[in-house]
Amino acid sequence: MTGNHRNTSITRRRALAVTGGTVAAGGLAVAGYQSAFAETATDAEASATASATSTSGTCMQLLSSVTEGPYYLDGALVRKDITEGKSGVPLTLRLTVVDATDGCTPVSGAAVEIWHCDAWGYYSGYTTANPGGSAPAESEEGDSANDNTYLRGYQIANANGVVKFETIFPGWYTPRTCHIHVKVHTGGEKADGTYEGGKVNHTGQLFFDDDIAEEIFALEPYSQHTGSYTTLADDMVYDGGGAADGLLTLKPVHKSDLSKGYKGFLTLGIDPDAENTGAGSGGGGTPPSGAPTGAPPTDAPSPSASS
Questions:
Q1: Tens-digit pLDDT profile for residues 241-254
Q2: Phi, psi torsion values for 173, nearest 5 degrees
Q3: Is the pTM of this model over 0.85?
Q4: What is the DSSP letter of 255?
Q5: Which of 224, 270, 283 is nearest to 102 (CA)?
Q6: Contact predicate 247/240, CB 8 Å
Q7: Checking DSSP bridges between strand 262-270 and strand 90-99, what pairing results, if any?
């Protein structure tokens, strides 16, 4: 599979996610964000999910902690919507943090931090790093996003261990497959719009089924990034273990209107007493040129944080 896909139309062939959810490719429609990000799960549903996780024996501990990669920045904001106007297929992430050492009980108050590239493969803070292949410059997208903060953020787990993020389907960069970085923190607190103190219990990455990614990357604005796309089997980080290695379950928001985006689900089993430095296995996958060097930028204004 390459970034310059063979067909720009959406096929009727659909893939089945590893964990059994029906998936489908979505069309790009920024106007569909509001619907995609609508709260569809009730507190009762969240409680039922957490209860089922703790009693069904399906909990796993994500032993495959991996490197945080070359694009981590301190000081991400505590907020649910991390898009800042970035264009792409809407993605609502619902992640459940459980204690894998104590019957998979929910870890209330855990801080889940995510960050990922935009539709063309650029990370905030490193917008001049070449994503490989052929792509417009990040500045050509014409959005209002803050170049140091977009597509980064924290959420604090509720009593059921659940966090939700509103974002977009990430693009790709050479030599990595499509992915989202994730850290789980405990013991700290929200301060000045970000999360401070405590320790990191898990550093990992979230992954996407190849067939879904292929259909997404045929859409605008993803299709403007052409070149060689790395599949899961050839990725330097993904270890082939399905959900245990971070493979998301994906479901379309509306089967009859796939342009409204996707919902992604995963349970993050952690050991709250463990500490992870972020120096796990797997390469970071620095792009072929324009690699980030030196300290990350710290002088740019931040948008208002919202929980």
A1: 999 899 999 998 87
A2: -145, 150
A3: no
A4: T
A5: 270
A6: no
A7: parallel
